[in-house]
Amino acid sequence: MSRRDEILGRIREGLRLRVHEPKRAATSSDGVRTGLTTREWLPAVPNDPEGIVETFARNCVELRTQYYRVTGLPELSGKLFELKDSEGWKLIASHRDPILDSVLPSLGLPFLLAEDRPATADVERADVGITRCDALIAQTGSILLTARSAGGRALSVLPPHHVVIARESQLLPDLPAAFELLNKTYGDAYPSLITLITGPSRTGDIERILVLGAHGPRTLTIILLRDPR
Amino acid sequence: MSSIFESQFRASATKLTADLRHRSLIRKALKGYEKSRDEKKARFQDWEAARQAAAETKWEAINHLDKYLSEFADNLARRGAKVFWASTAEEARNYILNLAREKQAKTIIKSKTMTSEEIHLNEVLAKAGYEVVESDLGEFIVQLRDEAPYHLVFPAMHLTRNEISHLFHEKLGSPETDNPEELTMTVRRDMRIRYCKADIGISGANFAVAETGMIAITENEGNARLTTSLPKIHVALLGIEKVLPKLSDLALFLPMLATVGTGQQLTCYNSMIGGPRQPGETDGPEEFHVILLDNRRTHLLADAEQRDALHCIRCGACLNVCPIFRNVGGQTYGTTYQGPIGSVITPHLRGLRDWKHLSFASSLCGACTEACPVKIDLHHHLLQNRRNAVVLGTGKLDRIAFRGFAFLVNHPGVFGVAVKAGRLVQRLHRLIASSKIDPLRAWTASREAPVIAKESFRQYWKSRHK
User: Fold this and answer.
1) Does residue B46 sit at the A interface (CB-CB below 8 Å)?
2) pTM for the whole thing?
3) Do B270 and A217 touch (CB under 8 A)?
């Protein structure tokens, strides 16, 4: 008998004694029946587009994520240029993508592309990792990205600064919408890594005092790109 | 009759409950947490309904564990992961040891996993000559101190920045500082080099998604992401109870875990890993090994009365509200899992005879049950453990005392004489109360003995009905 069959056998044996199912249909503490889906229990999100953007921006402030909203590619280039100058970037790590391809060369800096399989130590030396993502989530101020949408696993966590560029149409209201999107985008061929990033890396392990940049990026910047009318 | 574990528990609890510095440290550490937990909870449109739904989802997963575990393992295998089923701690340890040998690994980096504490993995790997480093800041600190984590979620919450500074100065040669940020950066720099050269990364998992064959890891520091991304081999070690049926279940469980675990809406990184590097991906490990550990979890599963203890998502919420935990401290338990949940499951995982004392170290106030996001009936399980312990056999002294009591209350004449004698003895006892020769010292050392009333109830009754 294989180890698997052994353990599954013990489980089936253990489960022979059945226990009552907890009562179905959630009711809230005051006995009023509430909604039946996760969306109706999680924190509320406004349902108008501007309200969603506002909620996202408010969460970014709380999380200490830098958040900018720009219109059109020239303005995006300008914002990146500003960041480059103020932080003194010398080396960029990024990946292939139509938007990135059109703005990164104008920065006039050397850049590593994930598709060229740079050495880990080189990516670690980069001042910034610039990536796209799958979606932004207003409810929690999170970024949803995968190994496929954001140039693999290391780009978004190894350099000290992570810049994410997202189209405004990528902003989703809540977590259930994010999981619906994952299913729709990838179906049966999920990337090997999916991650929800909510603010810059942090720790409270010393006297529960907040310190940013524990092991991942100290700075997280989200640039929301609006299409020019 | 008491086990060595019980004696250790008593000794440590006695010391720490009287330690006012320890008590204020823990109270201070939890104060900020309590505020943000309550604030984040209040943002939910309906927290109670969310708890109910989470309990239902875990009920479904645990009560059909064979089906969901098979689905999880098959989906993972299809995507190139190697799944190993370990019945015991030893089987899990040996699998990792053999893998390290076979791959000629030298250094191993770990992100926080309580399951590896459970199987004492670090000791075994270190003994075999491997360099094993904990990358989570709190875990790294307690590893340097060569002690067990204090808390499921906050491993080093019992230490001050000065103690940590001394530790780093002594072990890493870094300059003394009272700045938490500088201390954190010392570890960041040290760890960066280790991520890049480590041969194997070992992680735990918070959830295992059956539908898609993925593990989900919740963290704040980014160390788990680096541990699972950079080394060529990633090994994930998880208990068989971690399973959730659907990927979308995480939309509920991730924010609930963060809310009660750390007082956040979501922790910084919630990563779902479903295999080694897939075709077309630019980086990631070449091999992904998943170890599914039983280690007597099936024993707990077979106890229908306490099966829901397997719903636990290890958020630590029950520890934070527990008056016992807050006074005796996490390390006093001597268990991998501290606090109320640890007191419930440890007797199942490691034997009731040795660990029954944990269930008696409870005020049964029920704060844990109320705090639990998946509605585990914790304080009733503690009561059931007490009952099971009595069935197992009681101490000789207990038996004599209860027989004596039964005799007294069945013989009113003798009872009356005993009460009168008791009044006299008590007056004499007062002279030696709480001193070294006091036979009742266990009670009187920190409390006053109740005084026998001048007039007994029977006397009172008679005097009224003359």
Assistant:
1) yes
2) 0.92
3) no
Tokens of B364: 């049964």
Range of the domain at A217: 46-226
Greatest extent of chain B over all pairs of C-alpha atoms, in Å: 98
- Are the Cβ atoms of A28 and B46 closer than 8 angstroms? yes
In the block, residue with structure tokens 């005097």 = B463
Helix (H) or strand (E) holding B356: none
Query: Residue B321 gets which letter from DSSP?
Result: H
CA max distance for chain A: 69
Tell me what ipTM this predicted complex has.
Answer: 0.95
Could you tell me which chain B residue has the CA closest to the CA of A8? B66
Residue A155 lies inside a defined structural domain of this protein? yes
CB-CB neighbors (< 8 A) of A96 in chain B: none
- Interface touch A154/B135, C-beta < 8 Å: no
Residue A54 lies in a domain: yes
Counting the structural domains of chain A, the total is 1
**B 232-271 → A contacts, CB under 8 A:** 240, 247-248, 250-252, 254-255, 262, 264-271
**Whole-Å CA distances, B199 to B71, B94, B129:** 30, 17, 14
Are the C-beta atoms of B307 and B62 separated by less than 8 Å? yes
pLDDT over 80 (residue A32): no
Rounded to the nearest angstrom, the minimum Cα separation between A175 and chain B is 5
Q: How confident is the model at residue B1 (pLDDT cuts 50, 70, 90)?
A: low
Domains of chain B: 1-43+315-393 (no CATH), 49-295 (3.40.50.10420), 404-464 (no CATH)
pLDDT at A30: 46
pLDDT grade, residue A28 (50/70/90)?
very low
Inter-chain residue contact B284 with A178, CB threshold 8 Å? no
Cβ of residue B413 closer than 8 Å to a chain A Cβ: no
Sign of CA dihedral A45, A46, A47, A51: negative
Tell me the residue length of chain A: 229
Q: Which residue of A has its CA nearest to B182?
A: A211
Distance CA A190, CA B59 (A): 27
Q: Do the Cβ atoms of A41 and B44 come within 8 Å? A: yes
> Does residue B338 sit in helix, strand or coil?
coil
Domain-embedded: residue A171: yes
Alpha-carbon separation of residue B124 from A204, B152, B231 (angstroms): 29, 21, 21
Distance CA B272, CA B209 (A): 9
Structural domain contains residue A26: no
Choose among B181, B191, B248: nearest Cβ to A215.
B191
Rounded Cα distance between B50 and A28, Å, is 9
Give the CATH number of the domain where residue A74 resides.
3.40.50.10420
The two tokens of residue B38 are 């309550």
Q: How far is Cα B113 from Cα B238, in angstroms, rounded to an integer? A: 8
User: Using CB atoms, which residue from B212, B226, B292 is nearest to A215?
Assistant: B226
Contacts of B262 in chain A (CB under 8 A): 204
